[in-house]
Amino acid sequence: MTDDQRKLDIAILVCPGYMPVDIIGLHTALGTLPEVNVHLVWKNLDEIPGFPQFPTRATTTFEDCPADLDVLCAGATPPEILEDAETLAFLADRGARAKWIAGICAGSLLLGAAGLLRGYRATTNFHAYDLLPYYGATPVPTNRVVEDRNRITAGPATGSFEVALRLIQDLRGTDAARLAELNMEYAPKPLFGVGTPELAGPELAGTVDAMTAGMKAPFRKVSERAAERLGVPVPQG
Predict the structure, then answer these.
(1) What is the model's pLDDT at position 143?
(2) Which of 17, 25, 34, 186 could make a disulfide contact with 160, Cβ separation 3.0–4.6 Å?
(3) Whether residue 105 lies in the annotated active site
(4) Residue 208 in 3-state DSSP?
(5) Is 158 within 8 Å of 174 (Cβ atoms)?
(6) Helix, strand, or coil here: 49?
(7) pLDDT grade, residue 1 (50/70/90)?
(8) Measured in whole angstroms, how far is the alpha carbon of residue 78 from the centre of its chain?
(9) What pLDDT shows up at residue 237?
(10) Other beta carbons within 10 Å of 70
(11) What sign for the dihedral angle of Cα 10, 88, 125, 232?
């Protein structure tokens, strides 16, 4: 069986407070391919409250998740997950062997907390670009996909679809990726055209920064502790 025919194992982390918007595109695009096992992974199979108001159940526990994955993916989670020892151990273990490691939005920070982005270029939500160096990553401020060896990261929401299409291209070929893009009718045309700080301008971007400052503060504290734990020099400024 050739590499583009064998069954693929995809693991996507879900946890209390995770953001489905960051993983649904990847879940859909890869999960609708033939010969693919998509595992929604958490510590147990109890109901999980996603954010906002989105109940989910994992399909596979950490213990039962396949050891050798084609894709290991994480989207945004609450800051406390970045210090959850069991989650970090799972990600570090599976990430050491996975063919691809994908982070969407603040999922990139979670991968960093597991030691998987040190020495890699990466991106995340624009609110958190400045936190990537705490994990030894080189931040790339962009709303597009950033690929560095077998690490692939992106911003939120549409980043999930774009990462998925690139992974399909690698795992199943360009023709399969083109078909997937068409089947999803993936052709974003934003209503207002303000989806990046550059497009929005300083006034609107500043408003959003102020609105999210309280949400970001715990991530900064977690990131500072992660830098100490990982032995990464704390960024200045």
Answers:
(1) 83
(2) 25
(3) yes
(4) helix
(5) no
(6) strand
(7) very low
(8) 13
(9) 62
(10) 21
(11) negative
pLDDT single digits (tens) 125-142: 999 999 999 999 999 999
pTM, whole model, 2 decimals?
0.96
CA 18, 22, 23, 25 dihedral sign is positive
Q: Which helix (H) or strand (E) covers residue 166, if one does? A: helix 158-172
Q: Which residues pair with 104 in a beta bridge?
A: 154
Angle, nearest 10°, between helix axes 158-172 and 24-31?
30
Q: What is the 3-state secondary structure (H, E, C) of 215-236?
A: HHHHHHHHHHHHHHHHCCCCCC
Task: Please tell me the distance from the alpha carbon of residue 185 to that of residue 112, in angstroms, as a whole number.
Answer: 32
Q: Please give the helix or strand (H or E) that residue 27 lies within, else none.
A: helix 24-31
For 48, the token pair is: 């999980």
Pick the CATH number of 8-230 from 2.170.190.11, 1.20.1250.20, 3.40.50.880, 3.40.1440.10: 3.40.50.880
List the structure tokens of 104: 């969407």
pLDDT above 50 for 15: yes
Q: Where are the domains of the chain?
A: 8-230
Rounded to whole angstroms, the Cα distance separating 224 from 218 reads 10
* Separation between Cα atoms, residue 113 and residue 129, nearest integer Å: 15
Residues 125, 179: Cα–Cα separation, whole Å: 28
Average pLDDT over residues 107-117: 98
β-bridge pairing 54-57 and 47-50? antiparallel
Q: Are 49 and 19 in contact (CB under 8 A)?
A: no
